[in-house]
């Protein structure tokens, strides 16, 4: 860690030297100034903390303090004063002094004070960085695309985020960005500092989903030993994302409707209503009208949710955004895989643009990820995508000939994956759907080594070229 810099300002040379020496022993870089002007000059390069005498020969301590704070508001200042006057103390605090130390000085107390002040700033800086890094992924700019469809989608998101309107229904095919939009809606709204709670309605059995959402009182059922707040309640002031709302059981649909209309809820087994302010963002990739017709979704709830429907277009409906999306993911995977790929070739771009993308942006992301794993040079050529895009089928390696036993097949697949990823075990494991331990186990079991796999790899049964082999694996 870089040393923190402390500036000690005092015209009494002996005292200044003593403080400086003690602070250096404590591990800080220490600068010294004998008057206000010198102090401001030295501080101009940026210091973390200033120990400042209140009485200086040229300027008074308070005006130096004021000047320091104006130039660098984050600078900590500990003011040394011989005459503890309440007025001066109050003024100094208002000007942003961190603390006071009275003269005659207790050196050890000063060191403790300095350490504590710097620790506070460190923490504050960390919190700020953390906040910035958390808030950043969910800004409007994270939604890539400048086609008319995406432009009007973004305008709509911006408008909804800024308005107090409480319920939103996100409609769109799988992979079209409903999760992303829900988060952007929350994190760009006035609710951003309150919780964002994500509930997948299909993931839990009915009774669990109910108690998760509404909570329960102690004794509401056999296992309810303690009161538990539901997610709706704990998200108060924030957003609740109800994903796959089309799968919500009918009974719960009725309870949700009541909540949406009355903005109050009752814990299971409870007897009083609690007022809760959350924005419900519901999402589905099903045609809810059809669910209504089939009797699986309450019509009244559908109309209640459908007040503010937001349609996310499938990728094929805004295919002009594909180049920007590809560039976005090339960027991301360059960072993740530490590669330096510049982009896709013209032929690849044409091919990708002609594909129908049933899995939408998620499928594109996966396709680019796989191409980025396989690529050797700095351009993604069409063959790296060929099978991803044209044949719609899950990951597959080339098939071994008839009559080969399973062990051999497994060994060949592991060897192929390792060879294709330049022996990057993490990447190879990912291609095979294994975790690192599992691939490690197989490398040991089959005694695979880089040279060995080169002599004894997929070529022994296929004899294909490198490109073909890459293509065989999707
Ligand atoms: N316009 C976009 N710009 C950038 N990334 C996008 C865009 N649309 C979708 N994505 C990304 O695509 C992936 C899939 O999107 P998301 O998970 O939001 O889809 P979904 O509509 O919730 O799908 P599902 O119905 O399967 O839950 C995510 O990684 C998301 O960040
Ligand atoms: Mg989703």
Which properties best describe this structure?
binds adenosine-5'-triphosphate, 48% helix, Helicase, Ruva Protein, domain 3, five-stranded parallel beta sheet, Rossmann fold, 4 domains, disordered C terminus, 474 residues, alpha/beta
Lateral arrangement of strands in the main beta sheet: 2-1-3-4-5
Number of strands: 16
- Mean pLDDT comes to 85
**Counting H and I runs of at least 4 residues, what is the number of helices?**
22
Are there runs of 5+ residues with pLDDT below 50, and where? Answer: 387-396, 452-474
**For this structure, what is the CATH homologous superfamily of the largest domain?**
P-loop containing nucleotide triphosphate hydrolases
Bound molecules: adenosine-5'-triphosphate, magnesium ion
Number of domain units: 4
**Cα radius of gyration in angstroms:** 32 Å
Morphology: extended
CATH class of the largest domain: Alpha Beta
Helix % is 40-55%
Query: How is the CATH topology of the largest domain named?
Result: Rossmann fold
CATH architecture annotation of the largest domain: 3-Layer(aba) Sandwich
Classify the beta-strand content into a percent band: 5-15%
Oligomer kind = single chain
Secondary structure class reads alpha/beta
Instruction: Give the biggest sheet.
Output: 5 strands, parallel
Distance between the ends? 45 Å
